[in-house]
Amino acid sequence: MYTPEEIQHFFDAPTLKYLQNKNRGGSNGQKGTRYEDFFAVYKLTQLARGCVEFNSQVHFSSQLLAFVDALVIEINAERLQHYQLKNSASVYGRLGVNGQAV
Fold first, then answer.
1. Residue 62 maps to a domain
2. How many distinct structural domains can be found in the chain?
3. What are the angstrom distances between the C-alpha of 22 and each of 13, 19, 25?
4. What is the reported pLDDT for 41?
5. Would you say residue 10 lies in a domain?
6. 58 lies in a domain?
């Protein structure tokens, strides 16, 4: 483990800033992924009874080519549930009237 002082001493201030941003992004990404995993397990427990009692077919996917892509659950090849999960108060992008980006 290196201290910020050591990194700046051996390299320079811009390199230290780059590594700090890289570390922050990695930590935030890991927290977000963990949040999505816990939510997927929660949804799985909700749907498990239907799978057992009614032989429902349930498929979980994530990060698909879709506007709402964090978690997509397909039930019996006919019903889709989309979830966009955030573990932060700040949300990027907003939609206005008629779905136009603001």
1. yes
2. 1
3. 14, 5, 5
4. 94
5. yes
6. yes
**Amino acid at position 56, single letter:** S
pLDDT digits over 24-54, tens only? 777 777 888 888 889 999 999 999 999 999 9
* Residue with tokens 């930590």, as numbered in its chain: 27
Q: Which domain holds residue 11?
A: 4-86
Q: Is the pLDDT of residue 99 over 60?
A: no
Dist CA 33 CA 30 (whole Å)? 5
Which ranges constitute the DSSP H helices of 1-102? 4-10, 13-54
Amino acid letter, 41 = V
Query: Has residue 97 been placed in a domain?
Result: no
Answer whether 51's CB lies under 8 Å from 44's CB. Answer: no
Burial of 71 by CB count in 10 Å (0-12 exposed, 13-18 middle, 19+ buried)?
Answer: buried
Identify the residue with better confidence: 80 or 98: 80
For the chain, the first-to-last Cα distance in angstroms comes to: 43
Give the pLDDT of residue 101.
54
Please report the pLDDT score of residue 74 as a whole number: 92
